[in-house]
């Protein structure tokens, strides 16, 4: 068993798609700790706002198998990987941390993900796992969030239940 820290986002029917994703995660892994859902602007392209959240779960799958399972969930919800890297997404789930592992590959798997520079990844994770230490930096998520340039910004919380 390992503890997985996930970043979730959607800007295509986001309330619906995030609700389905959390339901699927709970159906497969049991208890899932989920952060509030925040509205954020699209990064890297002009598009509708995203809804972003984070989740922590205990997984019986290793990081590679979990990443494959998460990609299959994205695909079930209509994710199209043939377009540009930055674009509209019904569902985007990234494995940000898995225990204290540091690894790269195969494919796009990178743990920890470098997406922590984005408030839409770091804030929700810091909300639910403030004491977790980034194994690359040695800093807690709370410390990383306290140093983030967007830390004082107000984030709109969006209920999805």
Brief rundown of the structure:
With 161 residues, this protein is an alpha+beta fold.
Instruction: Fill in the CATH topology.
Output: Alpha-Beta Plaits
CATH homologous group name: 7,8-Dihydro-6-hydroxymethylpterin-pyrophosphokinase HPPK
Whole-number total of structural domains: 1
Specify Rg, calculated over alpha carbons: 15 Å
The CATH architecture classification is 2-Layer Sandwich
**Percent of residues in helical segments?**
25-40%
Globally, the shape reads: globular
Instruction: Estimate the mean pLDDT confidence.
Output: 93
The CATH class is Alpha Beta
Following the backbone from N to C, one meets helices and strands in this order, namely EHEEEHEEEHH
Q: What does the main sheet amount to?
A: 5 strands, antiparallel
Total number of β-strand segments? 7
Q: Structural class of the secondary elements? A: alpha+beta
Query: Per DSSP, what share of the residues sits in E-state strands of 2 or more residues?
Result: 15-25%
Low-confidence stretches: none
- The N- and C-terminal alpha carbons lie at a distance of 29 Å
- Helices, by number, come to 4
């Amino acid at each position: 068993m390992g503890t997985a820290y996930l970043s979730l986002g959607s800007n295509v029917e986001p309330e619906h798609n995030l609700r389905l994703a959390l339901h699927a995660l709970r159906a497969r892994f049991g208890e899932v700790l989920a952060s509030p859902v925040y509205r954020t602007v699209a990064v890297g392209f002009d598009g509708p706002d995203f809804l972003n959240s984070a989740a922590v779960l205990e997984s019986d799958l290793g990081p590679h198998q979990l990443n494959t399972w998460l990609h299959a969930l994205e695909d079930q919800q209509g994710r199209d990987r043939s377009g540009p890297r930055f674009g509209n997404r019904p569902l985007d789930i990234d494995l940000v941390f898995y225990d204290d592992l540091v690894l790269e590959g195969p494919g796009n798997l990178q743990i920890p993900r470098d997406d922590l520079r984005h408030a839409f990844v770091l804030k929700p994770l810091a909300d639910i796992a403030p004491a977790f230490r980034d194994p690359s930096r040695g800093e807690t998520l709370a410390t990383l969030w306290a140093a983030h340039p967007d830390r004082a910004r107000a984030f709109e919380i969006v209920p999805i239940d």
